[in-house]
Design goal:
alpha/beta, 5-stranded parallel β-sheet, Alpha/beta knot, 5 strands
Length: 155
């Protein structure tokens, strides 16, 4: 299974980069996770809607062909770790490749959000981007552990 995370923003705190790198190296080859960071639009006084639209186009262009888009959005669906693992298992069993998209400071474009078959909320609270990326990657690892029967998840 090939999983992509495509995120706006290239500079994250060192602690986040180190934690993300640690989780990424734990995944087995058959559950590959690729993180791709895209340059954010300059915050130069343009309306947020135009900035989101420009970043949305870059995110859309970076989506792997044939992938299932999952938009990370504060209005998205709440899932337990077990439900998330079940969803990943369904994608895996169908041969689908999910691509998680994370917008910039102003969020995702409405077009990209609406076009995604799944909008997912990581928390009801607002999270900094570095923490959202880390949380998503940790939950992907947890989902793998549930599917594999690995002892990492002890619920």
């Amino acid at each position: 299974m090939k999983i992509s995370i495509i995120a706006i923003g290239q500079r994250q705190p060192r602690w986040a980069d180190e934690a993300i790198a640690e989780f990424l190296k734990r995944f087995p080859h058959e559950f590959a996770v690729d993180l791709r960071e895209l340059k954010p639009e300059p915050r130069d006084g343009r309306p947020a809607q135009r900035i989101r639209a420009a970043e949305g186009e870059r995110l859309r262009a970076a989506l792997p062909a044939g992938s299932v888009t999952v938009a990370l959005d504060e209005r998205g669906r709440d899932m337990t770790s077990a439900a998330f693992a079940e969803q990943l298992g369904r994608w895996r069993d169908r041969g689908d490749s999910p691509a998680f998209v994370i917008g910039g400071p102003d969020g995702l474009s409405e077009e990209l959000r609406r076009a995604a078959p799944l909008q997912l909320r990581l928390s009801s609270m607002t999270l900094p981007h570095a923490l959202a990326r880390l949380l998503l990657i940790e939950q992907l690892y947890r989902a793998w552990s549930i599917l594999a029967g690995h002892p990492y998840h002890r619920a």
